[in-house]
Amino acid sequence: MVKYAAVELGGMTIRAAIAEDTPENITDRKLFKHEGVDPAVAIAEVVEWLKARQPFVSLGIASFGPIDPRKGSPTFGQITSTPKVLWRNFNVYKALDVFGVPVGFDTDVNAPAIYEYMQAKAQPGNEGMSSCAYITVGTGIGIGLVVNGKPVHGMLHPEGGHMPYPAPPNDKFGGKCLDSWTIPDGAEANASAPALAKRAGVNHADELAPPFPDDHPVWDEAAHYLAGCCVNLALLASPEKIVIGGGVMNRTILFAKIRRQVQAKLNGYLSVEQITDDEKIKEWIVPAVHGDETGIVGAMALSQNTFLEAGGAKDGACSSSSSSSSGGGVDGCCSSKPTSSSGSSSGGGKSAFDATSFVFGVAFAALVGSIIAKSK
């Protein structure tokens, strides 16, 4: 048995968990509420909880952003220009890198995007799949992107939930749900849970849960912006799958509304059956595999991948304790990757090890043969 640990930092809560053998097999977990709490205090509680559950072989951290995932950057590991004022410039990576195990660090949307990509690729007929987008819709809106089998980071990481999109006709909301750090024309400012609560005239997003009606116009407004995210993704990155999760998507009527609006907005421009066919689009824009659990399962998959990238194996053996800012390429996250002496996960480390073992084996055999000959 091998144990992995994971932490998912959301807008108002932190989830910590332990899994055995696979990311899905979560055996222990705890939810921490951090709204209004000093980050150092909030993370200290998480550390205490995890320490009581050691040993584990790796830790995956999936955090709300923007974050700095660039190894070598002076601000690596920090949550940067977030609307959550208390968390600005807090180094969550350093605060959690206290267990002496490999640590993976990425956004709370890239980690699920990796997991969803691997799940989709494992399905029959999808062996050649190379891309996937994951959209989360909750306290904020975020987009994770896998292209050519790897999570996209670029100069930082995608922040597609803030892509500007034209407002629907006669919409006077104006995207003023959060503070001045929000992009007013972006999806998050107009269709996140706090924005939808303000649109609907309720005090808190929790009041949007049933019995709040399905036919309220706020859901059409949400679908407008979420369809806009899908349209922009289709035109710019052309992902083979778009997965949408997060608490707002528990309102499942949104999926049909989003798909219809995507077709209408694209207006037949992309002539592919995944978009134009009313049935095929249901396989292109889909719910998250594990629903609300996708964030923590994605963080756990990041943990497993980080351990394997560091030279671990599924039986729990590990040859190094190096850390990763993203878990590396994801196509190999379910198979061990030996690590060379320089920390590289390329096959060169294994070849050097095999060659050295062979030379020592030959030398040892020659020595034994010489001793036997002399004894005669």
Index terms:
single chain, 376 residues, alpha/beta, Nucleotidyltransferase, domain 5, 3 domains, five-stranded mixed beta sheet, 11 helices, 34% helix, globular, disordered C terminus
How would you characterize the overall build of this protein?
- The protein is built from eleven helices and twelve strands.
- The protein has helices at about 40-50, 90-95, 110-120, 185-190, 195-200, 220-235, 255-265, 275, 280-285, 295-310, 350-375, and strands at about 5-10, 15-20, 25-35, 60-65, 80, 90, 105, 130-135, 140-145, 150, 240-245, 285.
- Strands 3-2-1-4-7 form a five-stranded mixed beta sheet, sandwiched between helices. Strands 10-9-8-11-12 form a five-stranded mixed beta sheet, sandwiched between helices.
- It is globular and about 55 Å long.
In short:
With 376 residues, the protein is of the alpha/beta class.
Which class do the helix and strand fractions yield?
alpha/beta
On the 0-100 scale, what is the average pLDDT?
85
Order of helices and strands: EEEHEEEHEHEEEHHHEHHHEHH
Distance between the termini: 49 Å
Shape: globular
Give the spatial strand order of the biggest sheet: 3-2-1-4-7
User: What is the percentage of strand-forming residues?
Assistant: 15-25%
Determine the fraction of residues in helical runs and give it as a percent range.
Answer: 25-40%
By CATH, the topology of the largest domain is Nucleotidyltransferase, domain 5
Give a count of the beta strands, DSSP E runs of length 2 or more: 12
Radius of gyration: 23 Å
CATH class of the largest domain: Alpha Beta
Looking at this structure, what is the CATH superfamily of the largest domain? ATPase, nucleotide binding domain
The number of domains = 3
Largest sheet: 5 strands, mixed
Tally of helical segments:
11
